[in-house]
Specification:
It contains three helices and no strands. With about 110 residues, the protein is mainly α.
Length: about 110
């Protein structure tokens, strides 16, 4: 009978160690996923920023070139601006299918891997 209280104490201690280990594992997995997602977003934002500068410069050059072809530089800027306005309206119309859905899927895949 002397071993019975000691056995329950050992069992309780083992269960307590197991729960603490599971909590630590969950915490480490959460930190790993969070750091992976944050680093992916950071890299994506840096690439997006660099690409944005390039696209802006290309659009300015295109607007000037089109303006010279049309006889007035301002017309080129209106043409490029009009193109982006039409593009924005199209993207707004299909935002769930083309933008929101793929981004949601990408985030969920990143969190589950």
């Amino acid at each position: 009978m002397e071993n019975e209280p000691n056995a329950f104490g050992d069992l309780f201690e083992s269960v307590n160690d197991y729960v603490e280990t599971r909590i630590d594992l969950l915490r480490l997995k959460t930190i790993d996923k969070s750091s992976d997602i944050i680093s992916s977003l950071t890299v994506g934002l840096v690439i997006l920023l660099i690409a944005t500068f390039g696209i802006i410069l290309l659009n300015i050059g295109l607007a000037i070139w089109l303006g010279r072809l049309m006889g007035h530089i301002g017309y080129g800027f209106f043409a490029v601006g009009g193109f982006y306005t039409v593009l924005a309206v199209i993207l707004f119309g299909f935002k769930r299918k083309w933008l929101k859905g793929p981004f949601n899927d990408m985030i969920v895949k990143k969190m589950l891997n």
